[in-house]
Design a protein that fits this description.
The chain has 138 residues and is of the alpha+beta class. It contains two helices and seven strands. A four-stranded antiparallel β-sheet has the order 3-6-1-7, covered by helices on one side. The relative contact order is 0.32.
């Protein structure tokens, strides 16, 4: 089941622009290792779920997975071969707006080699470039 908000104030939203780097949600907080976005973009709820399933199948009840993004943005589309006019299309799917630097997934309670393999499986599902990062110790 794909993620989506329970209810929203407005059914349709404008596209907007992704400008600048992420200043919030850009460091590993919950786990020990994370997957960080190198590019901005939209990540659909289906892709988020595919990454979650891939990671859970690798982890097999060892360690913990944290999904740090949620799809709040409705993406609309007009049916193919439709003439101009007749307004904005209906919501097709939900997407998370990701800025460069946003941490997408985190894992904890496993070794670094296992975390690298786990998050590499997730990285293959992502439509943007990502990198492996570890928690900063202060």
């Amino acid at each position: 089941m794909a993620l989506m908000p329970r209810r929203v104030k407005y059914r349709k939203s404008q596209r907007g622009r992704i400008r600048g780097k992420a200043t919030r949600g850009n460091r590993v907080v919950f786990g020990d290792y994370g997957l960080q976005a190198m590019q901005g973009g939209w990540i659909s709820a289906q892709v988020i779920e595919a990454g979650r399933v891939a990671a859970q199948q690798y982890l097999r009840h060892e360690g913990r997975l944290y999904v740090r993004i949620f799809p709040h943005k409705p993406i609309t589309a007009i049916p193919l071969e439709t003439r101009m006019g007749k307004g904005k299309g209906e919501p097709e799917y939900w997407a998370a707006v990701v800025k460069p630097g946003t941490v997408l997934y985190e894992v904890g309670g496993i070794s670094e080699e296992a975390a690298r393999l786990c998050l590499a499986r997730v990285a293959h599902k992502m439509p943007i470039r990502v990198r492996f990062i570890r928690r900063r110790t202060m």
